[in-house]
Specification:
Layout (H helix, E strand, L loop, with lengths): L30 H21 L2 H30 L3 E8 L2 E9 L6 E2 L4 E2 L5 E4 L3 E4 L9 E7 L2 E7 L6 E6 L2
Antiparallel strand pairs: 1-2, 1-6, 2-3, 2-4, 5-7, 7-8, 8-9
């Protein structure tokens, strides 16, 4: 028996659209939604730029430099104990403005540099009471070490205690 084709149901449901008198389905974003997303991205970007301003980068360099100097002083002390020979950290430049430093091992007839020379960033000023701190094979310091690492707005003091060789770092309020 043959069924009439005029009353057949479609195989897929019809979606309302402009041709059928309904509204078209929404595809994409409205202008307001895009504007809100762009505004939020702008705020996040502005916050990031403020956090990475040259001043904050210089302040971070001062902290990093202070911690590297302190770590290298401790390393010179540790190497003196391990090798059984005195090691010292020698700063180059004047006590009002050191430019670099390196670790040396005391040898005869001449001392040996045991590590690469570390140069300070131009934005950082490193000063000290003396240009050398020596550690004995027992780990004791033969000199008091007092150094300051400074940029505008931030400063760190590094201290090496005579005899014990203890190395400490602290931020100084400006």
């Amino acid at each position: 028996m043959r069924h009439g084709t005029g009353n057949a149901l479609p195989l897929t449901p019809e979606r309302p659209g402009p041709a059928s008198g309904g509204q078209a389905p929404a595809h994409g974003f409205t202008l307001i939604e895009i504007a809100v997303v762009v505004a939020i991205m702008g705020i996040i970007l502005a916050a990031g730029i403020i956090r990475l301003s040259p001043t904050s980068v210089h302040m971070a360099q001062a902290e990093y430099t202070a911690h590297i100097i302190a770590a290298d002083l401790r390393r010179a002390q540790s190497q003196a104990i391990t090798d059984g020979k005195s090691h010292y950290v020698l700063f180059a430049g004047s006590v009002d403005d050191f430019t670099s430093y390196a670790i040396y091992r005391t040898e005869s007839p001449s001392d040996v540099q045991v590590d690469e020379t570390r140069t300070f960033p131009d934005s950082v000023t490193v000063t000290g009471a003396a240009n050398r701190v020596t550690f004995t094979p027992g780990g004791d310091a033969l000199e008091n070490g007092a150094f300051s690492v400074t940029v505008p707005g931030r400063s760190f003091d590094i201290t090496v205690t005579l005899a014990t060789g203890a190395v400490s770092t602290r931020e100084v309020e400006l």
